[in-house]
Design brief:
With about 180 residues, the protein is α/β, with parallel strands linked by helices. The chain has a five-stranded parallel beta sheet with strand order 2-1-3-5-7, sandwiched between helices. Strands 4-6 form a two-stranded antiparallel sheet. It starts with a strand and ends in a 15-residue tail after the last helix. Bound molecules: iron/sulfur cluster (SF4). The site of iron/sulfur cluster has 13 residues, from helix 1 and helix 4.
């Protein structure tokens, strides 16, 4: 039986920049796959989620599908990590919280600059938007938060290696200042 930890990742309402930052660990990815197996993640394109040791979430919670996916990650993953500003505090997507959903939809689809065909999309397959974008800790319990937009590849590497080895998480100064 494999002794490797299982790790899943997902992007909710994010830009995939945090996943790009995960790839910035470069050749250390090879070291990582010695210690973990990937479950559902955009890196493997696996769509279903199994039991996992670690679930990493990028992005804020902006629609009903995000809520469903997030709750599934909480059910299936022993440790849940909020990766990046959008997951930690709503970040860029939460800038829409200053406006009502009606104002946003009308600006985007009816009245905004560059709108050619004024029509609000209504396909039943589209997930319903929430009135506001939420950080993930407002929807589920979160075990660790890694701020930054995005957190650097080195920060992610330090976090993952210490977590996998069961050590207390401790960052060098260069990895936790953001100016
Ligand atoms: Fe993109 Fe920054 Fe949000 Fe990460 S925290 S998903 S890099 S906007």
């Amino acid at each position: 039986m494999s002794q490797k930890l299982r790790l899943a990742t997902v992007s909710l309402c994010g830009c995939f920049g945090c996943h790009m930052s995960l790839l910035d660990i470069d050749e250390r990815l090879l070291e990582l796959v010695e210690k973990i197996e990937f479950d559902r993640t955009p890196l493997t394109d696996q769509k279903t989620l199994g039991r996992c040791d670690i679930g990493i979430i990028e992005g804020g919670v902006a629609n009903a599908e995000n809520v469903e996916v997030l709750r599934e990650f909480r059910r299936c993953c022993t440790i849940v990590v909020a990766l990046g500003a959008c997951a930690v505090n709503g970040g860029v997507p939460a800038m829409r919280n200053a406006f009502s959903l009606r104002e946003i939809i009308e600006e985007s689809y009816l009245n905004g600059v560059g709108v050619n065909e004024a029509r609000i999309p209504d396909d039943p397959e589209l997930p319903l938007l929430l009135n506001q974008v939420h950080p993930i800790h407002e929807v589920i319990r979160v075990d660790y938060s890694l701020p930054g937009c995005p957190p650097s590849g080195d920060t992610i590497w330090t976090f993952l290696t210490e977590l996998i080895e069961g050590k207390p998480i401790s960052f060098p100064y260069e990895q936790i200042h953001y100016d």
